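WARN retry 2 of 3 for item q-0093 after timeout on previous attempt; input resubmitted unchanged.
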Amino acid sequence: MGPGVLRVGKNPSIDLLKGVLILLVMAGHAMELTHQQHLALWIGAGFRMPVMIGISGYLLNVERTRSDPAGLLFKRYAERLLLPWLAALIVYELVTGAPLSWATPVEMLLRPPFHLWYVPVLFFLIMITRLVPLSPLILLAIGTPVSLATMYSFGLDHGPIGFSLVSPDSRFVRFPVYFFFGMLMAERGLPTRYLGIVLVVTALGLGWWSALQGSGNGLAYVPARLMMCLGLIALLPRLAALRLSFQPINRIGRDSLFFYLWHPLVMAGMLMAGANAPVMLLLAALALTAGSRLSARHAGLRRWLGSVPPPRSAPAIAIEPAPQPA
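OK item q-0093 returned
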């Protein structure tokens, strides 16, 4: 669900990939809720969100992000990201009965609970892109050592960096490498001469990561995951050029924020009803599809739930007959 400002229009291949990734996120959470341990869960957890962050960097319109007035920029992202995230945060806090205090707003912003970390991390990276007007390559050169230091110091599991009230979640400083690499791929593309190398690196990273399941080898986790995820992000320009489409999954990809924010709530209800993982995934996908379409019809619901507006039908174009020769 990498919501952001698109460069030029919509690309069906990227929407398709986002839809697949959201379904993989939902499948992984369904397996976690039913306490399943499987190689597929390990592999999916290794690349789902890094690639989603990479897609967000790939789709970000850097020039527009840096040139728009601050008020317009915040208004746009408030409507597309922050208001739906705030609504979801309030709902999840009320449902779980979490204790509230004067420090709760700071904790929710810096250490968001559950799956709600994605939006603050994404918005933070977008703001870094605006406030630090350097090229994607330089941002990547700065962000990579920061990400690597965080991975090796705090591991790949989420958690705060430090013990104070203002200690942020580690993902704020662990994911810049993926975001800025996505920006670089949007700017530079992937030359044909490097395609074979990228495919080999991606395959080696995937195989290495798969073999590390249950090993506890923290030193190997970082390079294996980087090879796998950066290789997949590097393939985004090639995937975009194919313009693949499968409408049901593309729809999920276009509405990725809505599906991402609300699927745990829907799945929790199905778990209480006794559904197993496959049934939970299927019913949740159908229920969220119906919910996104219903809410898309109302601007107020869209603003607070994060669903996308219904597609506009192309206006009819009158075609005048060609002039006949005398």
